[in-house]
Amino acid sequence: MTRRAVVTGVFSYTGGAIARQLLDHGDEVVSLSRRPAPAGHPLAGAVAREPLQFDDTELLVRSLEGADLLFNTYWIRFPRDGADFASAVANSRALFEAAGRAGIRRIVHLSVTNAAVDSPYAYFRGKAAVEVALAETTSEHAVIRPSLVFGGREEILVNNMAWLLRKLPAYAVPGDGSYRVQPVFVGDVAELAIAAAEGAGPTLQDAVGPEIYTFDVFLAALARALHARSRLVHLPPAVVVALGRAIGPLVRDVLITAEELGALTSELLISHQPATGHTSFREWLPGAAPWLGRRYANELRRNWAETG
Questions:
Q1: Residues 208-236: pLDDT tens digits?
Q2: What distance in Å separates the CA atoms of residue 297 and residue 300, rounded to the nearest whole number?
Q3: Residue 76 and residue 145: Cα distance in Å, rounded?
Q4: What are the residue ranges of helices labelled H in 143-298?
Q5: Number of domains within the chain
Q6: pLDDT band at residue 265, thresholds of 50, 70 and 90?
Q7: Is residue 45 domain-shared with residue 189, that is, in the same domain?
């Protein structure tokens, strides 16, 4: 039976992975997007597009009508241009309420590992607040909490780590590098999200891979696969943030934020539950090495450009 699924962020990253798998299953996919598909995007001709206009409730409801499922990947990585985490929470609530009015059967929402309302990091508090808004809107929902996502040419964070390892003689590591990460493959995240759409009632699941690395070991594996000669240099996190700010204007982007480094060094990108993803980062690396980090992935250009 063909389902009609609305996916936010089809032309971005995790939303694109979800859309591809839904299409492979024979489902009809609608992209709810703030801007048109980039030129030449492989999904541009495969999905319908509806505008994601949070300030127009009636348009939002009409954009969702006739769909069975909503997969929500909308969020912001950092505050900018008048948008902050509080407004992103409000936008998310507006989307969930519109989905209810439109008759959406089930919402699958992508959050983040260790989201908590009392987190010291605004990003993680905001993610938790969205989970609360979702629960207050409908009991027919699933929350998927990914850790550090890798895989796919649309990815930003791991790609740019690889780019820095390729370009710089020394890579600045915040702190001692002994804190851990548990990377998860984007295709595994999509699989978990689509499986969660088949459930009933409220569900919550971490999306994490089968391997846990210290950050030093993670970077060393990445550098080895790329044949990069960049040396890992351990520096205080505040110095790494300052270096990121210095490089930012050169690439016309926000390279890293203090909150992101804080979450990384606080081990918020691991789970205390069994692994749910099955793809090995170490085994994925050799196949990705020819293209990974060859080009810098610009967050501002992709997600903060003027809408069309």
A1: 999 999 999 999 999 999 999 999 999 99
A2: 9
A3: 15
A4: 157-167, 186-196, 215-226, 237-251, 258-265, 281-288
A5: 2
A6: very high
A7: yes
